[in-house]
Each structure stands twice: as C-alpha cells, then as structure tokens.
Amino acid sequence: MTEKEYNLCVTEYADNVYRFIVKNLRHEEDARDVVQSAFEKMWRNRDGIDPEKGKSYLFTVAYHQMIDHLRKTKRIQLKDEFNDETRVVSHDVHNAKKILEQALDRLSETQKSLVMLKDYEGYSYDEIGKITGLNESQVKVYLHRARVQLKNFLVKPENVI
Amino acid sequence: MLYIDNELTVDQMKQVELFVADNPDLEEELLMLEQSRLIPDESIVFDSKHLLRKEESDSFINMSNYEEWLVLYVDNEVTGEQQIAIEKFAVSHPQVQKQLVLFRQTKLQPEKIFFADKEVLYKREGARILRMQWWRISVAAMLLLAAGMGLFSILNKKHSTGKGAIAKEVIKKEHPASAANIKTSNKDTSGNVGFVQPAPPQNLATTTNDKIVKKDNRQRKIIGDEKSNEPQLAVNSTTARVVPSEHVALQSVQTKPPQLANLNENALNEKINTRKILDTSVTYPTVETPHVMYASNTDNDENKRFRGFFRKASRIIERSTNINPTANDDRVLIGGMAINLK
Fold first, then answer.
1. pLDDT value of position B115
2. Which of B54, B66, B75, B114 to mutate to test binding with chain A, by most A CBs within 10 Å of its CB?
3. What is the model's pLDDT at position B328?
4. Which candidate, A2, A104, A114, A10, places its Cα nearest to that of A48?
5. How distant, in Å, are the alpha carbons of A8, A31, A50, A130, B117 from that of A58?
6. What sections of chain A are H helices per DSSP?
7. What is the C-alpha separation between B167 and B241, in angstroms, rounded?
8. Which of A7, A22, A124 faces B123 most closely, judged by CB atoms?
9. Measured between alpha carbons, how far is A120 from A122 in angstroms, rounded to an integer?
10. Any chain A CB within 8 A of the CB of B52?
11. A155 band by pLDDT with thresholds 50, 70 and 90
C-alpha cells in the first residue's frame, strides 16, 4: 500500500470506522483514539497490506482495539445500567429509531458489532467472520439471535409505535 | 453407595434391601443417601431445536424454518431464486409477512457520523536519509581529495608541456645543434627547460624562453623589457610563435638533420624580416598574439593523435573484413552494407 492509497483509505473509510466504533463505545473521544490507533497501525504495516483489503483491515484492527478498550474500561456495563434506567424514564418516546437504538443497546457487544457491520457496512457473513475472528456459522447464529431479540423488543407493548 | 448409584444387579439390590430391613438403624442412612441423588429438571428445554434439525425440505422455506430464512433475507444472504421464493412464501402466509415486516424494521439505517479533523490521519512519507558512518565519510573525502589532486596535476602537466614545447621550438629554431638536449628536457613533466645548458652564445635565448615558460603572467612584460633593451631576443621568441608552419618544419628538423641548413637559412631570413618589422615600431601590436598560438599548438597535436587512431582503426577493420569501403565500383560500404552510388 502506497502513501496515496493509505490517504485514500483515510478519505473513504475514516467516517465508517469512526461511526462503527462510536456507536459501540458511545464515547467520542475514546472512539477517536481507537480510529487513530487503527490508522496508525495501518500506516506502520502499509507495506504488507493489500490496498483492496484496506477497509477490512481497518475494521478488523479497530474492532479488536475496541474490544480491548472495553475490557479495560468496563465502560459498557456502566452504560448498560444507565441505559436501563433511562429506558424506563423514556417510555413515552415512540420513535422507531430511538427504540431500535435502545434495543441495540440491550444486545451483547458481539451481537451489536455484528449487526452494525451488517447494516452499516453491508459486509457478508464471511467478511464479518474474518473481521471479528468468528467463523461464518457463528456469525449466522449470533446475527439470527440478535435479529430475533431486536424484533421481540420492537413488538413489546410499551415499544409499539 | 452402589445401591444408590444403581450399579448393582437385581439380586444384589434385593440382598441390600433385606439387610436394611433386618437392621432398622441403617434404614435412615439409606434414605438420606437416596435424597442426595439429583433429579433431572424436566422444565429446562432447548427452544431452538429448529435450528438444529436437518431435513431435506430445509433447502426451501417452510413454516418450521421461515424465521431463519427471513433473517437471511433481511441480511441479503440469499440468492436471487431464494429471494423470490421467500417473497412468494411471505405473500401466501400473512403471519410470515408480518414477521418479515418486523425483521425489516430491525435493520439499522446508516447515520451521518463524520470523523472530524481527518488531517491528523493523513500521512506523508519523508525522504529516506542514509546515515553514513564516520569512516565512510573520511574515505569518501580522501578519495575526492586524491581525485582532485590528480586532476589538478594532469591539467597542470598538460599546460606546462604545451608551453615547454613552444619554448623548445624556439630554442630549436635558434640553435638546432642543441635539439638533442631539448629532446631530453622535454620529458620533464614540469615543463621546465631550465636545466638545458647550451653553448654560451645561445644562453640568452634559452634563459629568455625559460622565463616565458615559468612566468606566463610576466611573459609580456619580460618580452617588452627585452624588446626595449635587446630587441633581437624578443624577435627570437615571437617569430617562433607567429608562424605556425615553422613549428611543423622544426619538428621535422629533429629527425632530418640534413635539412637543418635550409631551415637555418629560412629562420634567419624570417628573423631579419621580423627585425625589420620590429625596428619600424609600428608592428609591435601584431607581436602581442602569443597566447593564440599556445592553444593552436596543443590542439593540433591532439587532432593528429585522434586522426592517427581513427586511421589505424579503419585499417584494422578493412584488413579483418577484406572490404575496401571506397572500392572502385562507385559505392561506399557503411556498416557492412553496400549503397550504390549510381
């Protein structure tokens, strides 16, 4: 990967990676740090990176750094508790997007990441498996459970629009 | 314990039961052991058996597996044919259609989130700097110094030999008898002909020429002085420079002594002519052209050298190929090809 190809990756994928990370972490500064770390790693290893796989490389690195970050900070557990409380308070908010976000917050980190990689980035099960380190069958099962969970949350009486 | 774990045969179990009946104090202990056994909880069931079942009909959507197919449909993980089959199945089953709508609602819509200040991510490759070790630098410096000194000495040598040749020619012209001495002095790379010591009458000419070779900058001044004091000496040096044809003649003089007499006569005639010109004092400016002749002398030598080299090369080619490039058949051979001139 040349300097030009690297900078093209910045232009094209920085927003995507940042969106993926910030939606998982829900903390902008931490998400920026993860994205910067991912690009730094890409720059250091640019000689061995296929330019066509630049996006997958970035998401793979960013995903694993995000998992490491979550393990260190345990931020997500605290957020989950906080969101459970806010969810009870905001019962009257019948907005499909917000309800879906609430439903998303109730998923496990892995499930949430899989749903985001699928819906935001349009990766196939195989590609998601390579990014997250899972096999295709695991991705399929996790996503199936996540979809069913999201659907069940949407059909709950308090969440019906 | 074996009785409790059901590891005994029927007869052995009966024997244990009879023994416990005969000993009522053990009956309570057996009861406690039986209560320690875990009883399976039948209420716990695996509710995703449909994911595990494999049937021939699984290759197609049906009422037992439609949920799985709907998820695959929403995730765009189905082929074109499967997509059409699922849509048809959903249309024909309202319950499935409703589930399909709900699954579609679980799809996240991309949000416009941007990474601010991307400039921090852009990179530029810096120029690679090769660091040299101190000994490499010193070796390189020494080589450059040596090359510079060599070049300087070569250039200096060429310059001095050119001047020496002129000086030699002047001496030859004035005193052909001392030609042998000059020839040996010409080998001196410094171009200094100072050690040439001809006969006393010739001393003045030789020393004058030495001054010309050694002190080029002072040359004109010296000659001018000599003009004023001893006009004859100045004439000697200038006549040799002004007439290039004499230079060729003088060279031939070295190899052909019989012609020396004629040359001396010519030189004397020219000397007389030049003296006449100098005496008139009108022709002094014309004498001030010795530097032009320096260059022409050396250039001619080099041209001759190259000419000789090319002649030799062409002869070797002609001999080896037996081809005469300018044969009498009205054609010229170039690069082994014949071009007809007619």
1. 87
2. B75
3. 55
4. A2
5. 13, 13, 12, 12, 18
6. 3-25, 28-44, 54-73, 75-89, 96-105, 109-119, 125-132, 136-154
7. 9
8. A7
9. 6
10. no
11. confident
pLDDT given at position B229: 46
For residue range B264-274, list pLDDT tens digits in order: 555 555 555 55
- Residue with token string 């796989």: A53
Q: pLDDT band at residue A63, thresholds of 50, 70 and 90? A: very high
| DSSP β-bridge partners for residue B118 | none
Measured distance CA(B315)–CA(B326) in Å, rounded: 12
**In terms of Cα–Cα distance, which of B86, B248, B118, B30 is closest to A8?**
B118
H/E run at residue B338? strand B337-340
**Out of B105, B111, B114, closest to residue A154 by CB:** B105
Looking at residues B205-231, what average pLDDT do you find?
A: 45
Helix (H/G/I), strand (E/B), else coil: B149: helix
Q: Report in angstroms the alpha-carbon separations of A5 from A11, A53, A123, B127.
A: 10, 11, 21, 18
**Nearest CA to B274 among B239, B225, B247?**
B239
Quickly tell me which residue has 């740090």 as its tokens: A33
Q: What is the pLDDT of residue B175?
A: 52
Query: What chain A residue is nearest to B120 in terms of C-alpha separation?
Result: A36
Mean pLDDT rounded to a whole number for chain A: 84
pLDDT of residue B125: 75
Q: What is the pTM of this model?
A: 0.45
**Residues ≥6 apart with Cβ < 8 Å to A92:** none
Task: Measure the CA–CA gap between B106 and A143, rounded to whole angstroms.
Answer: 11
